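User: Could you write out the 3D structure of this protein bound to magnesium ion? I've included everything you need below.
Assistant: Certainly. Input first, then the structure.
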Amino acid sequence: MARRLTVFECTACEFQSPKWLGRCPECGAWSTLEESSPDRTKPAPPGSSRPIPFPEIPETGVARLSTGLPELDRVLGSGLVPGAAILLGGEPGIGKSTILLQAASILASRDNSVLYVTGEESATQLRLRGDRLKVTEKTLLVLEETDVDRITATAKETSPTLLIVDSIQAVSCSDVASVPGSVAQVRESAQRLVRLAKSTNMPVVLVGHVTKEGGLAGPRALEHVVDTVVQFEGDRHHAHRILRTLKNRFGPSDEIGVFKMTSTGLQEVPNPSEVFLAERPENVPGSSVHAAIEGTRPILVEIQALVGEPMQGNPRRTALGIDSQRLALILAVLQRRAGLTLSDRDVFVNVAGGLTLTEPASDLAVAAAVASSFHRKPIPQDWALIGELGLAGELRSVSRLDARIKEAERLGFKRVLIPERAQHLTDALDRLFKGA
Ligand code: TYD
Ligand code: MG
């Protein structure tokens, strides 16, 4: 007789293990492994699915619904798709409730109804925020509720154009044993809300808090369940906020939308380059400008570097807005290929404005900012830099060069240093600092 196989599956990330473990090695969550039996010979459940010939698949051609905030539409992939399940993540206080209430109010003012479920704050607290945002719409319905089945029942009854659940961590299922806020609860609640979205075609936005480690709580579980994951980034202490698409079944991912928090809500920033360069110091060593591509759009950003004597002990390397491994590589190349003795220095690099750059196209601008601080020589104000750095010190070409150059020109940069014009890092640095 075949031995019955038992598997333990992580309720957070679906990782499977033959034995029980206290901590999931895949997503790092604690106590999430539960026994499940992989009985693959079960009879098919009754149902009516059948294969259809390709041309008979109905075309979608769906009309997307604008949220009334073009920067939000952009990250969603030109608006809300019917039946889409969207997760909006971000640290507490970053502005998730604010942006959703603003979008809800605009939608409601355009002959739609919106159901805003508040599970964390009372309706009165929501009202305070809404008064600040000048919300007056009668078709914006507010429901104070945390039970997922009562939420779905109300949503079916009122059938709004958009359902917002703020937040998914506050919602729970009465028939799931674990405590509210636990991974199992959050996942099951999200799944029920996603099913509602799919069965009614109602787009659903779930708010999810991001944990200190930067992951969406209920780790990767929620990211699998929804169609789109949008994350609010930025520094709570500064006005600018960046909305970034981490995953999108209905549009490009990595798209960003830029906002500014004001006393009357979030304001869109249609020209982010201007904002990211607005506070750039003039003729100061350690500052360079890079033409980045974020999503579909070129954006100019200032990169700042500071090279200093270590205060104590080992030199420190701090990277904000770029990957620290990437910074280590750039510093090694600067040392070995361009002769800058950095090994005994502190190096700090920061992307101004809170943007996070992920492309290696910013290497040259990072290297130049570090070299500029090292030599205490400013980079001329009218240069913008683009290029990836190879380990031999060679500059490598990058994608969408034309769009980047155009954006630099639009913002008044007269000279753009690109890999085609300087083959090696030393050529590039000579041109920047010797005016060659
Ligand atoms: P909120 O939307 O409550 O954040 P989240 O839902 O992500 O936790 O935003 C809270 C912050 O935004 C809070 O510090 C107050 C500030 N704020 C403004 O500056 N202006 C405004 O008009 C509003 C509504 C909030
Ligand atoms: Mg909130």
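The mean pLDDT is 90.
User: Perfect, thank you.
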